[in-house]
Amino acid sequence: MYNISLITGDGIGPEISESAISILETIHDKLDVKTKIISLEAGDAALKKYSKALPDETFESIKSSDACLKAPVGESAADVIVVLRRNLDLYANIRPAKSYPNTPSLRDDIDLVIVRENTEDLYTGQEFIVDDSAVALRVISEKASKRIAKHAFNTAIQRNQKKRVTCVHKSNVMRKTDGLFAKSCESIANEFPDIQFDQMYVDACSMNLIRQPEEFDVIVTTNLFGDILSDESSQVVGGLGMAPAANLGDDFGLFEPVHGAAFDIAGKQIANPTSFILSIKMMLEWLGNKNSDQNSISAAQTLEKIVLQVIESGITTKDVGGNMSTREFTKEITNRLVC
Ligand code: ATP
Prior knowledge:
By secondary structure, the chain is α/β, with parallel strands linked by helices. It folds into two domains: 1-92 and 243-339, Isopropylmalate Dehydrogenase (3-Layer(aba) Sandwich), CATH 3.40.718.10; 106-236, Isopropylmalate Dehydrogenase (3-Layer(aba) Sandwich), CATH 3.40.718. The protein is built from eleven helices and twelve strands. Adenosine-5'-triphosphate binds next to loops.
């Protein structure tokens, strides 16, 4: 039995969390991956209620669970996800972008993953006012850069596709920080002679993600660039509603959609829950690999296969061209989830 902590979030968070619960309960019943879901509060609503976006109780429950699912939170996101990433040392942010049929994907052969460093860069929040200027501190360490590079190369091996890692940076301008990142990736590349390694400036990468996204396999990059490029790559495969993510450390995993709370569509039952459902797929795969649990790995594969079948048969939410509600789309998936 896996204890799964679930942050239900703000905006469309509660709606897609309802989908997540129903998917996990169906997998529990039909695919025999036993889970206990612990629903937790964090985000804007929690901030209003407890004066803390990430209440201590929520943090403790997450820490003692086997994995965490996190729906998006609103304005207080930095006080929730950035704090969780740092305090749980979830150093690798994995953001796949894959074309699914019947979605507004740029091409039908895109299958790439962005491996984003998750703990450093401009996202550590070290900002100061000096006289009449605002200054942000950008920290890039050799240790964190090598750690994320290793993760990227291992991801390329596991994926067993193009066996290519592209290191994305801007070292021609940020010579010290991105220079160190690029050098660290180069040194790890030497340990993986079977994986092709190349480098690309971030501006060229953002262009190539539109021009020839099918060429990419694994992209490894720093925190801010990874955040931006992964929103772009999700749009390339049909939009934010299709984009899952994993935040991984050595011992813990937190899984969440790439998108934010999307307040503009909250409460209308039109949110696409695919991003969260595919995050569950990533969680089951991670739990399976961590615990040598083939059942969980198979459930992950089955879940992805069924999401694909449903979308292929033209059953989709509004954002990707269909007319299903969040609940109806989820029901189509749970109805097909059998051994
Ligand atoms: P953040 O900065 O927190 O990532 P954001 O301001 O970039 O958030 P999002 O909340 O991610 O914005 O959403 C951007 C737009 O994409 C939304 O306004 C919404 O129209 C659309 N969108 C995001 N997620 C979904 C979804 N799951 N289903 C349908 N549309 C979505």
